[in-house]
Write a structure and sequence with these properties.
single chain, alpha+beta, 3 strands, 14% strand, globular
Length: 103
């Protein structure tokens, strides 16, 4: 299942995403949170803290600047650019996925 949360700025997308992700994680579902916002705060809402949220943002910026390589698969994205959040949620901060794997 894939769920996207979209809306106007300040409408509660990040809060809704975090609550949904943690609820599904608590129920035993495998959950990956992708923070694609230009002002990524999903890590804070999920409870990974300031330092880890900033680390993920820094990794994204390094890719944008050409200082790090893009990951080519979901596993590579999560291994290289992800972190574990509470309730079994795996989080990463990304700009885009150039060639998503189907499924």
């Amino acid at each position: 299942m894939k769920i996207a949360v979209v809306g106007k700025g300040g409408s509660g997308k990040t809060t809704t995403s975090a609550l949904l992700a943690r609820s599904l994680g608590r129920q035993g579902h495998n959950v990956v949170g992708l923070d694609c916002d230009t002002n990524p705060n999903l890590g804070l809402s999920l409870g990974v803290g300031d330092t880890e949220t900033e680390r993920l943002l820094s990794l994204r910026d390094q890719i944008d600047e050409g200082d790090r390589e893009h990951a080519h698969t979901w596993a590579d994205i999560l291994d290289s650019y992800g972190t574990d959040a509470p309730d079994g949620v795996r989080l990463t901060v990304i700009n885009r996925i150039d060639n998503p794997e189907p499924g």
